[in-house]
Amino acid sequence: MVKTGILLYLLLLAIVVTATFGLAGAADLSVSATILSKNQCKFKNPSSQMLSFGDLDPLNAVDVTRQATLQFVCNGNSPSVAYFVSDDDGQHAAAPDANRMQNLADPGAYLPYSFAVSPAGGTGTKGANVSLTVVGTIRSTDYQLAIAGTYSDQIVITVQP
């Protein structure tokens, strides 16, 4: 009788464990959080700028360099701000730091150019405007034999505190 009682008890325990864990439905839950920067940096309006190289004449080929200025401001809890500026190399980059513009009429044609942002990082005071200089260059050897047409690219510049 004792053996039967123990076996019955183990059987009931197995049923309870199976009902509790083995046959119960399961669900996955994704957990995420975003920590906001204590130095919230944002580009000032307008946050979209143009870096236009203008008309390039292959018969009068010279390297063409243009620049634009962007401004951002950092606010938040800290009186001083440290920041780092990066870019995504554009939509048509051949590799990291190998920027290219794409011909709008002939999507298989590209025009290489160099691109740099200065300063790439630094420190400043909360609420003060910070100016970024964006410099782009197209070498004459890259556009002398290029297919005629309009070329374009879009680069995303990010400021990370």
Explain what this protein looks like in three dimensions.
The protein has 161 residues and is α+β, with helices and mostly antiparallel strands. It has a single domain (39-160), classed as Immunoglobulin-like (Sandwich), CATH 2.60.40. The protein is built from two helices and ten strands; from the N terminus they run αββββββββαββ. It has helices at 2-22, 140-143; strands at residues 39-43, 64-76, 80-87, 100-103, 110-112, 114-118, 121-125, 129-138, 151-152, 157-160. The strands form three sheets. The chain has a four-stranded antiparallel β-sheet. Strands 7-3-10 form a three-stranded antiparallel β-sheet, with no helix packed on it. A three-stranded antiparallel β-sheet has the order 5-4-9, with no helix packed on it. A hairpin with a 6-residue loop joins β4 (100-103) and β5. The longest helix has 21 residues, at 2-22. The relative contact order is 0.23. Mean pLDDT is 81; it is low at 1-22.
Describe what is shown at a glance.
The chain has helices at 2-22, 140-143, and strands spanning 39-43, 64-76, 80-87, 100-103, 110-112, 114-118, 121-125, 129-138, 151-152, 157-160.
Number of helices: 2
Poorly predicted runs are 1-22
CATH homologous superfamily grouping? Fimbrial-type adhesion domain
Spatially, the strands of the biggest sheet line up as: 1-2-8-6
Instruction: Write down the overall mean pLDDT.
Output: 81
Q: How many separate domains make up the residues? A: 1
| Proportion of strand residues | 35-45%
* CATH architecture title: Sandwich
What Rg, in angstroms, do the CA atoms define? 30 Å
- Please report the distance between the alpha carbons of the first and last residues: 74 Å
For the record, the CATH class is Mainly Beta
Number of strands: 10
CATH topological fold name: Immunoglobulin-like
Largest sheet: number of strands, sense, barrel closure: 4 strands, antiparallel
